[in-house]
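Structure ticket #2291
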Amino acid sequence: FRLKMFDLGVFTGNQVRSWEPDFDSDNLTRWCKKGYIIKLRNGYYTFPEYEKVPSFNLYAANRIYKPSYISLHYALKFYGIIPEEITTITSVSTLKTCSFENFFGRFSYQTIAKKLFFGFEEKKFNNKVIHIATLEKALLDLFYLYEFYDSEEEIEELRFDQSMLAGLNKETLLSFLDRYRNKALEKRISLMIKVYRL
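Resolution: structure written out below.
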């Protein structure tokens, strides 16, 4: 079982049954209790050895709720824009809004329309591919999904790191913004550009 499933990183009960149709699913429950495997959410599992693998929690975030990519506050922390520690791994998905908590941390998913599911890159960590929003898309997702950032005061409260925002591609930001076709979002982005002198 380990030889077959370990390299997957995250595996599902369905994958186990595809490999071994007569597999007793009660084994998964027993093995979780014994610490041989770790339950990430219903039907999704990993092995305890992955606790020591850097950024495995980001890979798990992509795998346990698909399709999704890491965005919003966690992505902005990843790019050094948000100075505070972010403990919840935040993602967006075309599926319904939900959250999970497990051994590897807290995972939050916000719903976004299929037409807005773009603007993420593949980054490699330990031979695993992680989908994470570009800096520009993470900002747009944030201001699109959190409508209360609608004044200079609220945007200043985000305390973005001005020096790290220097890496922002304004042309890409505005090009992505056009695809939202949302006047309120355009206003919030204009305020952000003004506040942080971009």
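Closing remark: The first helix runs from residue 2 to 5.
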